[in-house]
Write a structure and sequence with these properties.
TIM Barrel, three-stranded mixed beta sheet, 16 helices, 13 strands
């Protein structure tokens, strides 16, 4: 509808808060019935080397080695920041900041230790019930991710994770269980964290690629596994609407706005294709269909998606209710090496107009506004920023405090651009920073890449008291929330 009026402020019910993941905070990897997830089988940095293994380095032998080890120092995600034991203290700190929402993920292997057990682990179910009730004590809305790079390792070893259709059955039994258990406690859900990153490999699908030799073979495995996740997402959405009619299901995308390196049409086309490859996932989950532009990609890479007769109808009938996404940085690409979809995302160049973090992530707050405007125009469903943050080497000053002005400036500039997108007409549900409390980095398994408003006394080798201490940004974000985004000073 045409109007000369437009919003000037964030909505009154805007969900300010922060986000985490079970495998980066919980610890308690082998107690109260829990078994290992794939994430807890990835080593940190090895002595004498700067190489930090990632989830996509996993092989069958490395997973088997991890399963036979009880080391927390070798595998940092096994200790996290001890949220499992400290959640009352942590949630109280979030409440002090004024949080309206807190995003966590459920560790699938805490509830179903092998992924497909006949009965759930009651101690795991009770833990999350206690966490949700603690949040509600402070009027904090839980936002829950069902799968955040957290495939039970037993599923990987027995049938190669999401490469098997068996994962759909196991997952939807898990989702039905938690929807019934947490009815009345959780209204906002999302299925798979940053589902588009599953196109990169093991970390999101739990499917090993040891015996595959060509890139096309690997892409076949990954996109078949992702199809199984699309089906599972639709079934979970159907379950949620039946079990908790007032609840909302979202999908979750890793959004990195991609720019052309120059005005050369080949660079522009390379950027468009990189963005389209990301949008493929939300086209399926929001629009409910496989987009035509992927037909050529599948054909050129010899990908043949195996579907059950009702898969496409199921995906069409049960799209998600909202689109959530992470945003940390933008990317700039060149088309000089060809216009293949995969090359378009790989041939990245630096952007001379942007500065970067200590880890080389280019800081681009305007890119967040561009992404918001573009996704709103494309999908017309509510949007939700559920990760945004900066990893940095925080130092304790001589006065015993942490003066993280760089973090405040990062958040200030992104919130300003987010507000501009709201003025542009974007329907925005909320803003969750990554992460409110220092945690083990997903990509590098280190603590020194710190994101939080709250400092955790723990180093990369697992040494420290794990005591919590607010940083300067803690008190700044407190003012932001209390003013509903008006006071960014």
């Amino acid at each position: 509808m045409y109007s000369t009026d437009f919003p000037h402020h964030f909505p009154k019910n805007f969900l300010w808060g922060g986000a985490t993941a079970a495998n980066q905070i919980e610890g308690a990897w082998n107690i109260d019935g829990k078994k290992l997830s794939d994430a807890e089988c990835i080593k940190g940095a090895q002595p004498g080397t700067s190489h930090r293994p990632t989830l996509d380095d996993a092989t069958l032998s490395s997973i088997e080695e991890a399963v036979n080890s009880d080391s927390e120092k070798l595998y940092p995600k096994r200790h996290g920041n001890d949220f499992y034991h400290r959640y009352p203290e942590d949630i109280k700190l979030l409440a002090k900041m004024g949080f309206k929402a807190f995003r966590i993920s459920l560790a699938w292997s805490r509830i179903f230790p092998n992924g497909d057990d006949e009965q759930p682990n009651e101690k795991g179910l009770q833990f999350y019930e206690n966490v949700f009730k603690e949040m509600h004590k402070y009027d904090i809305e839980p936002v829950v991710t069902l799968s955040h790079y957290d495939v039970p390792v037993s599923m990987t070893l027995r049938y190669n994770g999401w490469a098997s259709r068996k994962a759909v059955t196991a997952f939807t039994n898990y989702t039905k269980t938690v929807f019934n258990r947490y009815k009345g406690l959780v209204r906002y859900w999302m299925t798979f964290n940053e589902i588009n990153t599953g196109a990169s490999g093991f970390h999101a699908t739990g499917a090993l690629e040891d015996e595959l030799t060509t890139e096309d073979e690997k892409l076949q495995l990954r996109y078949q596994a992702l199809h199984h996740q699309f089906v599972a997402s639709s079934i979970a959405t159907k379950q949620l609407h039946e079990i908790i009619p007032e609840a909302k299901m979202g999908c979750m995308l890793a959004r990195s706005e991609t720019y052309p390196a120059t005005s050369d049409p080949n660079d522009v086309l390379a950027a468009q294709r990189a963005n389209d490859l990301n949008y493929f996932f939300t086209d399926v989950q929001v629009r409910g269909e496989y987009p035509e532009y992927m037909n050529r990609f599948f054909a050129e890479h010899h990908i043949k998606i195996q579907m059950e007769p009702d898969d496409e109808a199921l995906i069409k009938r049960y799209p998600v209710d909202y689109l959530s996404f992470s945003y940390y940085c933008s990317a700039t690409v060149s088309g000089s090496h060809g216009l293949n979809f995969t090359n378009a995302d790989q041939v990245k160049v630096s952007n001379p107009h942007l500065s970067a973090t200590d880890w080389g992530w280019e800081i681009d707050p305007v890119g967040l506004r561009i992404a918001l405007d573009d996704m709103w125009d494309r999908y017309r469903v509510p949007l939700f920023v559920v990760e945004n943050g900066i990893g940095a080497h925080d130092q304790i000053a001589s006065d015993g405090k942490i003066h993280d002005d760089y973090r405040i400036q990062y958040f200030r500039s992104h919130i300003q651009q987010m507000k501009e997108a709201v003025k542009d007409g974007v329907s925005l549900m909320g803003y969750l920073t990554w992460a409110p409390i220092d945690l083990v980095s997903f990509s590098t398994s280190e603590m020194s890449k710190r994101y939080g408003f709250v400092y955790v006394d723990l180093d990369d080798n697992g040494n420290g008291s794990m005591d919590r201490m607010p940083k300067d940004s803690f008190f700044w974000y407190q003012k932001v929330i209390s003013s509903n985004g008006e006071d960014l000073g």
